[in-house]
Input
Amino acid sequence: MTDKKLQIRPQGDRELVMVRAFDAPRSLVFQAYTRPELLKRWLGVFGGWELAVCEIDLRVGGTYRWVWRNPDRKQDMGVRGVYREIAAPDRLVCTEQFDDPWYKGEALCTVAFVEAGGKTTMTVTMRYESTETRDGVLASPMEGGVEQSYNKLAELLSTMRW
Amino acid sequence: MSPAARLDATFAALADPTRRAILARLAAGDASVMELAKPFAMSQPAISKHIKVLERAGLIARGPEAHRRPCRIVAKPLAEATVWLEGYRRFWEQSFERLDALLEDMKLDNARTKRKGERR
Output
């Protein structure tokens, strides 16, 4: 069985690294990451949100434009960026900037796909403008007391197998 | 220490399975170095080293008594680390679960296409 636990950790001053394994060859994972009709089926599509706009010009210097929509809440959330490097199915590098910036400036997103035995390990590295921005991205509005943090401790420890 | 440096120290300290086991034990109650060493096939000096790393990261504190110096867990840095992870994690975990399902569909489609091709 593939260990599908999601690992997230800071790296250096302004990076954030996310690692996740998938039970599929990387050519499929790469497709799922770069084809609009496939992205619409998984990326941020839950809790009433749909990926209403998903335009991708998959070439170096090409742009992408994604807009999530929540019809019940009558809310939109859009993001755009430019592809900087495309090496299918190994690597994808693009910039990321939100319409309503919830973090400052632009981020650089590098996705690496490594396949072994028909399974793919995907590593996403996000580089932000500054340490403050990186930490701000991850600061959640959730309020947590000491007791709650103890409850979360076991969960946290079990998800961290590096 | 800046919040970012503190977070780095927390994660570095948590990157070792023995240290996570020590924290899990201390979450259940204070313990001496000897008590902590018991479940591990490790010498007491080796355990002491791990405890020093946890102490430097501010994840545990030690009592003042000269002999026993019991260790106790310090919740604040762990609370910061968990809160920090929560919102971001939720978005990606839910997305990736959907991606898992999509990949299963894609694998089936591929297998079907392949079988069709072979029959021809």
Remarks:
- Residues 140-154 of chain A have pLDDT under 50 and may be disordered.
